[in-house]
Predict the structure.
Amino acid sequence: MITLKEIIPLANQIQKDYELCDSCLGRLFSKQMNLSSNKLLGKKLKLSLSKPAKKCFICKNLLDNLTPYLKLMFDVSSKYDYSSIVVGALIKPSIIDRDDYIRSKYKLKGIDSVKTDITKELGKRFTKKTKKRIDFLNPELTFTINFKDESCQLRSKPILFHGRYTKSNRELPQKQKSCANCSGKGCRICCFHGISEYDSVEGKISEFLFNKFGGTTAKFTWIGGEDKSSLVLGSGRPFFVKLQNPFKRNLSIPRKIISDSIVIHNCKIISELPKPPIKFTSLIELKISTTNEIKSGTMKKLKSILSGPVVIYEKSGKRSEKIISALKYKKNAKDCFTLFIKAEGGLPVKRFVDGDDVFPGICQIMNDKCTCITFDFLEINLK
């Protein structure tokens, strides 16, 4: 660590050649002296010279006029709950060029750039006033100050949720259609949510989160899916959501949220999303009709599907296998029966009944044309 006396000659030379503000002058030497205040050091270095005040060669006195930008930060963050921040900046290239020129000309290495000094000073003054903290790795609010057009953009750290839902309406789809105007990107018409209606499972969960926490878009990770006509019973289907740009954070969530024909169970905030693939099993009840009368003994053949995996062929040429670990059946009428299966997640249920690209399938085993009337999920378990 060097002393003030050692740096005065070079500091005097720089001041003779260029007019610098206290902050920019102090920044050139503060790290070498292990000091935290660039401005105070700059004032000390200027005591030996008396020069008329002019605009700083590097920042054009920007560092002495940060108050309006600080006010922008207070204004845009007033509606948010947060405990930590980080500040970024977009500044004119000419300021950066002049800073690089000075550091290069006087061979000054290992010092902060003028951009770093600006963001540090804004962060220091903002946190002193708000009693929040700086977090460079995982801040809850990220400010980007644009010094070119004198604006301030704010991004709020997403909140991650995990919960389950049950569904008792056969007319409610799982996924919500995107806003027709922006195709799900978010626009003024859909209040930047990416969806304009709330008539699905996704829509009703999103509506609750938007009303409770604010935010823009909600991105879902579904643990399997169901038809519009399927019921979801038992403890419900698990789901994960990333809520972008929330206003509120530290709010309690009821264990049960009822929204028309769906119930959201045990929705809670989590620290991270699970890494795909997410493995699960589903207990499914299928109601199946046949073209011909079900002959005695034919249904016993269904047990044969447990002897090995069910093979699924996709149009893309991809091949996959799913295991059915349990099976029960019940004949309801001469041409209708109910099938209960416990299947590995990802089994295409309708194609398993009537498709020719799933082997062995119900049609093949029954040697008859079969139709899946409904299929309901009685339980879904994560592995």
Summary: The mean pLDDT is 94.
